[in-house]
Write a structure and sequence with these properties.
Number of strands: 3
CATH class: Mainly Alpha
Strand order of the largest sheet: 1-3-2
Strand content: 5-15%
Order of helices and strands: HEHHEEH
Shape: globular
Structural class: mainly alpha
Number of helices: 4
Number of domains: 1
Radius of gyration: 14 Å
CATH architecture: Orthogonal Bundle
Distance between the termini: 46 Å
CATH topology: Arc Repressor Mutant, subunit A
Largest sheet: 3 strands, antiparallel
Length: 84
């Protein structure tokens, strides 16, 4: 038990959220993503679902059944951050 590494779950969650947002903001593939596609990109279905739930609760993504896409507010902040 003492030999197991300590994992910062909060940091890992933030990383998963960043990856999902980066995929959703990809200028080459601007489209709704399915949860299955996000899970393939993250390599873990549960992490993808949890990230989408957190981002949806924060108002950064819309959901319709299995599909996810960024809100207009999230897109605007992303555009402003890129311009800075």
């Amino acid at each position: 038990m003492q030999d197991q590494p300590i994992v910062d779950v909060g940091l890992a969650d933030d990383d998963a959220d960043r990856v999902v947002l980066a995929l959703l903001f990809d200028p080459v593939a601007v489209r709704p993503w399915s949860l299955g596609e996000l899970a393939l990109e993250l390599g873990n279905e549960l992490r993808a679902i949890d990230a989408v739930v957190r981002l949806h609760a924060a108002g950064l993504v819309h959901r319709c059944h299995e599909f996810v896409w960024p809100t207009r507010s999230a897109l605007r902040v992303h555009t402003l951050a890129d311009a800075a």
